[in-house]
Request: fold
Amino acid sequence: MTPLDALDAVTADVRDHPVTLDGTGLFTAMRHIDLLCHLTARMAADTEYQLAPNNAGLPPATTLAASAGQLGQAIAHYTQALTPLITLTAARQDTLQQKLDALGHHSSLRIHLQEAGRALAAARTAMEVQQPRATASPPAPAPQHGPTVRRRA
Reply:
């Protein structure tokens, strides 16, 4: 599986299994974090592998590194979403005051999950960027210098 295919598979899984506020929401969020951590580790390893000589077939190291950075941001947002998610799933929201108190947690959770989605989209965009291929053009001529003047000490 190519790095782009792996990124697409994880993105599809995140999209197909949204984080909810029922009993499975925390499990789903932790599974998303786990998938993102594994994918980030793979991108980092592929980056290191690409830096070694004579390794073709992978995207350029800069592309892999940029995607790994975006995946790290997605992991950070999912991690920050855990606090409001745990609070919302553990706390009762029977009274009006409890529901009002939970609004901030709902907002924080929504913001972090949206930002994680944006980071995944940015990782995908970074992977799609095509690096210019080297062309077989003649080497540039060496710059010409004027006469060298030597000073006597």
Q: What stands out?
A: The radius of gyration is 24 Å. Helices lie at 3-16, 25-51, 61-90, 96-128. The chain has four helices and no strands.
